[in-house]
Amino acid sequence: MNSDTGKTWIVALALAVALGLAVVIITVGVLYDAIFSEGPGLSDNATQVLTAAFGGIIGVLGSYVGYRAASNGRSSPPPPPQVDASADQAPLVGQGGESEPGP
How many whole angstroms separate alpha carbon 15 and alpha carbon 4? Predict the structure, then answer.
C-alpha cells in the first residue's frame, strides 16, 4: 500500500465518520423536537430534513459503491483498444469494392 492510498483512506474514513455523525445529530435533534414539542409530532419541515439527510448519505455511499464496482479494483483505467484504420474503411465504388454498371 503506497502513501497515496493510505492518505485516501484516511480522508474517506474521516468524511464517512463526519457525515454519519452529522446525520445522527440531525436525527436526534428532529426526534427531540417531535417528542417534546407541543405540536402533533413530526412536522413537514422535519420530515423533509430527515429525507434530505438520509438521501444525501445514501447518495454518497451509492456513488462510492458504484465507483468501486466500475473500477473493479484497478488503479488506472485500461488502455484503449488498438484499431487498424485501414481495416475499418469499406472499399469505395470504382476501387475494387463493387463493379460499376456498364453502359
Answer: 17
Q: Which of 44, 13, 46, 55 is nearest to 27 (CA)?
A: 46
Taking alpha carbons only, the member of 20, 44, 19, 15 closest to residue 30 is: 44
CB 89 within 8 A of CB 83: no
The contacts of residue 88 (CB under 8 Å, 6+ apart) are none
Sign of CA dihedral 48, 54, 55, 60: positive
Return averaged pLDDT per consecutive 10 residues of the chain, 103 residues in all: 67 82 87 82 82 83 79 68 65 55 57
How far apart are the two ends of the chain, measured CA to CA in Å? 74
Closest CA to 16 of 57, 62, 70: 57
Grid cell of 32 as nine digits: 427531540
Task: Tell me the pTM.
Answer: 0.50
Check if the beta carbon of residue 52 is closer than 8 Å to that of residue 30: no
